[in-house]
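Structure first, sequence second, as always.
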């Protein structure tokens, strides 16, 4: 059962990263097919890495690693260079803990933040479904009380998944909704509370104060809550997501990242670059449209799938 699950997760990540892999793999093989190691090749390697969204600084560092390696191993081919990149990227993930933190007792509270349009509510539904399939009980909190559509959307998911939902009236205090949700979870013996929040970054100061208040409200009932504060980012926006992530990290603190729509572009390198820049681990990847298309981030399989089919 576990082996089948791991294989399924690996294949979904491999499928999702197809565009990145095809771009990087075919381009690197074409470059090395010239059989000439020169400055033009090194510049092209850096350009390819940049186009895959590793960022300016990181692309330069990786290209310099390639340069140093090829000067010592001039006969190495594209496959060996891609393996070198795989090794370098994997080394960058070593400091991180990718496991989902859980409360030692009582409900585990997960606060989900992010700007509107990045797939936040859909991620909540996918995570709830995943937790259900693992045998956990889940309660949803609709703490985005400023958009009627947000409450309606999460209510539809709750009904579809057969999950209890705590919600307030329109324009109600989001912190009060979070408080009520955790209280209900404690009384009902629920394992996980997933709290949806507003994503109005255009009113940044107000939003961040609101999120801070929600966190304080959670801590009144459980001092260690929320156990996770996860930022949901659309992977297709690439390095632009870095500025969004910095804003949330500085204001409310983040314990993990969630990348949605990882299958939608050839910019898979942005996942590693953002994680490295912010020193925050990726916790989950959205790999497709289905409710089941959510996998925990596993660095070895993800990085391998950036360059190789198997």
């Amino acid at each position: 059962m576990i082996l089948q699950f791991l294989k399924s997760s690996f294949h979904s990540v491999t499928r999702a990263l197809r565009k990145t892999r095809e771009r990087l793999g075919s381009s690197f093989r074409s470059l090395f097919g010239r059989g000439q190691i020169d400055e033009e090749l090194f510049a092209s390697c850096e350009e390819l890495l940049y186009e895959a969204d590793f960022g300016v600084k990181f692309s330069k560092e990786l290209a310099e690693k390639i340069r140093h390696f090829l000067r010592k191993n001039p006969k190495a081919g594209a496959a060996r260079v891609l393996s070198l990149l795989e090794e370098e990227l994997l080394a960058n993930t070593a400091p991180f803990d990718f496991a989902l933190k859980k409360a030692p007792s009582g409900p585990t509270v997960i606060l989900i933040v992010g700007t509107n349009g990045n797939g936040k509510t859909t991620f909540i539904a996918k995570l709830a479904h995943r937790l259900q399939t693992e045998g956990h009980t889940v309660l949803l909190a609709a703490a985005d009380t400023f958009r009627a559509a947000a409450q309606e959307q999460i209510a539809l998911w709750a009904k579809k998944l057969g999950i209890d939902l705590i919600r307030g009236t329109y324009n109600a205090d989001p912190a009060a909704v979070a408080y009520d949700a955790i209280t209900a979870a404690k009384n009902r013996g629920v394992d996980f509370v997933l709290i949806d929040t507003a994503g109005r970054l255009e009113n940044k100061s107000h939003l961040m104060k609101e999120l801070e208040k929600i966190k304080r409200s959670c801590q009144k009932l459980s001092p260690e809550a929320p156990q996770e504060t996860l930022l949901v980012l659309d992977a297709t926006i690439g390095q632009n997501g870095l500025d969004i992530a910095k804003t949330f990290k500085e204001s409310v603190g983040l314990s993990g990242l969630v990348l949605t729509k990882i299958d939608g572009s050839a910019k898979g390198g942005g996942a590693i670059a953002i994680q490295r820049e912010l020193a925050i681990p990726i916790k989950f990847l959205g790999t497709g449209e289905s409710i089941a298309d959510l996998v925990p981030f596993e660095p070895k399989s993800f990085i391998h799938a950036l360059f190789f089919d198997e």
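Margin note: The first strand starts at residue 108 and ends at 113.
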